[in-house]
Design a protein that fits this description.
This protein has a single domain, classed as PAS domain (Beta-Lactamase). The chain contains 6 helices and 6 strands. The protein is globular and about 50 Å long.
């Protein structure tokens, strides 16, 4: 029994170290450009665009996204100036970065490098613990296996408007921690 506990504790310590490495990577490599006008302008514009949406409309958009039945909505988030910007950043950051996506103050995708499973991030910890926590929040999720890779970690940051200092949305970066140096 004691051997099992020490192995479990060792695994927990190793996973904690991977989380710290992922956080450090995002803070040093991503956070410096999170206030770029391309991101801020896209999020602010979408916040205006989606401000009048009713929850029923948002829920239907999410269903359509999940079913991949609203190609116009998907294309509007996958093929815009923000997504092009994010793709260039992802490519420059190298193989440790699996995905980057940005969401607005309702948790709706604004731009992304890779198609997300769902359109609404507003019902997940990445939203509550960034946008919901204020303009300087960083949330490091658990390290878990995903897409056949053993150690994936999502790190999310609040997107804030540099002019006002207020939170306007958030960004999530998916990290393959095995590729971090």
């Amino acid at each position: 029994m004691a051997g099992t506990l020490s192995i479990g504790a060792g695994n927990a310590m190793a996973l904690d170290m991977l989380q710290k490495k992922a956080r450090h990577f995002v803070v040093t490599k991503v956070k410096p450009w999170i206030g770029d006008a391309t991101i801020v302008d896209a999020v602010n514009a979408q916040n205006v665009e989606t401000s009048k949406l009713k929850q029923q409309q948002i829920d239907q958009e999410d269903i359509d996204w999940l079913n991949r039945s609203d190609q116009k909505l998907i294309d509007s988030r996958m093929h815009n100036a923000l997504s092009t910007f994010l793709m260039a950043k992802k490519d420059a950051l190298g193989p440790a970065v699996l995905e980057i996506f940005v969401f607005d103050k309702k948790g709706l995708n604004v731009g992304e490098t890779d198609l997300t499973t769902d359109y609404i991030q507003g019902d997940e910890a990445k939203f509550w613990k960034t946008y919901g926590a204020g303009p300087n929040a960083i949330f490091v999720d658990k390290v878990e296996p995903d897409a056949g890779l053993p150690h994936i970690c999502q790190v999310s940051l609040t997107v804030k408007d540099p002019k006002t200092g207020k939170a306007i949305g958030g960004m999530t970066v998916g990290i393959n921690t095995d590729k971090l140096k």
